[in-house]
Design a protein that fits this description.
The protein is mostly helical. It is built from two helices and no strands. The longest helix is centred in the last third of the chain and has 28 residues. It is elongated and about 45 Å long.
């Protein structure tokens, strides 16, 4: 499924992961917060996909 919004979210997450990778050893709290954010964003996108599919507006 081609979805520009999801592509932008994935790109943003990839940039965040790249930024965190270099700082993990110095800042374990940032890594924990990033993991929590990534998990919540994944859950939010999945919930949106379910709503769109339920409303009949998506291909999910």
């Amino acid at each position: 499924m081609e979805n520009p919004a999801l592509d932008r979210l994935e790109s943003a997450i990839a940039r965040l992961e790249g930024a965190v990778t270099g700082h993990r050893a110095r800042n374990a709290d940032l890594a924990r917060r990033h993991a929590t954010l990534k998990s919540r964003m994944t859950e939010a996108v999945a919930a949106l996909d379910r709503v769109i599919a339920h409303e009949g507006g998506g291909e999910a």
